[in-house]
Write a structure and sequence with these properties.
The chain is mainly α and about 150 residues long. It has one domain. It has five helices and no strands. Helix 1 crosses helix 2, helix 2 runs antiparallel to helix 5 and helix 3 runs antiparallel to helix 4. It is globular and about 55 Å long. The relative contact order is 0.15.
Length: about 150
């Protein structure tokens, strides 16, 4: 089974081909822009995991986490536009945002008192954070702009 990123890249490739041929329907532009955004965010989180330090040095770990946290905070405030939503859609958005904020709060609490017992512990914890945050963030984004993958 293809990962979400692989599915996104397939759809992105198809839309890019349509765009290059001048045959991208106007109503596809917003989902295409959203797809590009999501791919960039996923790629950035992959870099975050790959560059997470394997270290016991508190300053190094704190600096890396500050970057991670700042990026997450940017994502929480970005792109709050999309398809019009009825009352049920607005409730889905609100529920998704509350779930996302809950995950962020729990991770911030965990990292505020983070103690390293082994050099690779931080890297594992950051990758776990990413693997927890991303699916919920993607669900949240879907409440704004749905991307049909098939």
């Amino acid at each position: 089974m293809a990962t979400v990123l692989e599915q996104y890249r397939l759809r992105q490739s198809a839309w890019n081909a349509q765009s290059a041929a001048g045959k991208l329907p106007v109503d596809t532009l917003l989902p295409m822009l959203e797809l590009n955004y999501r791919v960039d965010v996923i790629d950035t989180f992959q870099i975050i995991c790959k560059t997470a330090p394997v270290s016991n040095d508190g300053k190094t770990l704190a600096f890396h986490y500050q970057l991670v946290d700042a990026y997450i905070q940017l994502l929480l405030g970005e792109r709050k536009f999309g398809s019009r939503a009825d009352e049920a859609g607005m409730k889905r958005r609100q529920t998704a945002e509350e779930s996302l904020l809950r995950v962020v709060r729990e991770n911030r609490r965990q990292f505020s008192s983070f103690k390293v017992s082994t050099p690779d512990q931080y890297k594992g914890a950051v990758c776990k954070l990413v693997n927890t945050f991303l699916p919920i963030w993607l669900q949240y984004r879907e409440t704004y702009i749905h991307i049909q993958l098939q």
